[in-house]
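Run log // design_07
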């Protein structure tokens, strides 16, 4: 239920969809001004831990040639990497706080064949048994799943 008419001159920086009346509404979807779309589970829609009960469809993009830190990967599941100017390292967040999380990393500029994208596990954590993996072909992508201890290529 909307509290007011949604228009360019009277909205906040996000659009929220909820269930029930305004006083008891449970937020189920939010579109933020930066283009982030967040879907929040309602009972029965998803199962698992509290973290898995929130499904984030979030798009992040690295600046040209900038490494991506674990903090920048705190939420969301799709990272578009720009390695047009230089190689890029994507530093994964700690597996212990990301169990069940899926992360998709893609060379969005088609430059990985020249400037590789290195994906680095946190500390001694591994990705399919290796401390790093490399995207080294243009437009390459990888999907990772975290088991709470390490990351795995799907």
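design_07 sequence
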């Amino acid at each position: 239920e909307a509290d007011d008419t949604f228009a360019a001159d009277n909205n906040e920086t996000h659009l929220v969809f909820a269930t029930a009346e305004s006083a008891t509404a449970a937020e189920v979807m939010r579109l933020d001004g930066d283009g982030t779309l967040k879907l929040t589970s309602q009972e029965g829609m998803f199962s698992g831990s509290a973290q898995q009960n929130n499904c984030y469809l979030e798009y992040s993009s690295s600046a040209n040639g900038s490494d991506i830190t674990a903090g920048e990967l705190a939420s969301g599941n799709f990272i578009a990497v720009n390695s047009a100017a230089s190689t890029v390292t994507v530093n994964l967040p700690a597996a212990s706080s990301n169990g069940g999380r899926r992360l998709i990393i893609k060379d969005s500029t088609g430059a990985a064949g020249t400037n590789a994208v290195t994906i680095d596990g946190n500390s001694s954590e591994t990705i399919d048994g290796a401390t790093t993996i490399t995207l080294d072909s243009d437009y390459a992508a990888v999907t990772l799943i975290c088991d709470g201890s390490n990351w795995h290529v799907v």
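The chain is about 0% helix and 35% strand.
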